[in-house]
Amino acid sequence: MLHGATIESIDASILTTSDGKSLVNPFYVSDMAGSGDDMRVDEILKKLASALIERQISVAGLFSKLDTDDDGRINGPELHKGIKNLVGDFLSPGQISKVIQSLDSNADNRVDMYELRVALERVK
Ligand SMILES: [Ca+2]
Ligand SMILES: [Ca+2]
């Protein structure tokens, strides 16, 4: 099985933050008002939730699959890769950004275990 070779091929400019800087995209924020894109985020979450059920893994199991550098938080590239592996969807950096912002209740631009759990509960 291939592991982690392709993330560099996407536009990483808005996905890479290893230094804790803000990841908020100016173009995304202006796009936020009044768009119906929340539906897409929920669809992605629903697919993730059903992948969990299909594979019979727990939220904690999913989290450790996603958190490939094992720092306890999921960043953009990790989420991108995880969704591609688990769900088969190839999300754009903008979509990944939306998913993270939708889950990120403490605004650190990463998804922690609690945030993931809450999100998956929400789409049940
Ligand atoms: Ca991580
Ligand atoms: Ca967070």
List keywords for this structure.
124 residues; mainly alpha; Recoverin, domain 1; two-stranded antiparallel sheet; 52% helix; binds calcium ion
Please give a structural write-up.
- This protein has 124 residues and is mainly α.
- It has a single domain (36-122), classed as EF-hand (Recoverin, domain 1, Orthogonal Bundle).
- Helix content is 52%, strand content 3%.
- The protein contains 6 helices and 2 strands.
- The chain has helices spanning 26-32, 38-55, 59-66, 76-86, 93-103, 113-122; strands spanning 73-74, 111-112.
- Helix 4 (76-86) crosses helix 5 (93-103).
- The longest helix is centred in the middle third of the chain and has 18 residues, at 38-55.
- It binds calcium ion (CA) (2 copies).
- The site of one calcium ion (CA) has 7 residues, from strand 1.
Query: Beta-strand level of the residues, as a percent range?
Result: under 5%
Average pLDDT works out at: 81
- For this structure, the CATH topology is Recoverin, domain 1
Structural class: mainly alpha
What is the oligomeric state here?
Answer: single chain
Determine the CATH superfamily.
Answer: EF-hand
CATH uppermost class: Mainly Alpha
Name the overall outline: globular
- Second CATH tier, the architecture: Orthogonal Bundle
Order of helices and strands: HHHEHHEH
Q: Number of helical segments?
A: 6
Low-confidence stretches: 26-34
Task: Give the structure's gist in a few sentences.
The chain is mainly alpha-helical.
Which helices and strands appear, and what pairs or packs with what?
Elements: H1 26-32, H2 38-55, H3 59-66, E1 73-74, H4 76-86, H5 93-103, E2 111-112, H6 113-122
Antiparallel strand pairs: 1-2
Bound molecules: calcium ion (CA) (2 copies).
One calcium ion (CA) binds at residues 104, 106, 108, 110-112, 115.
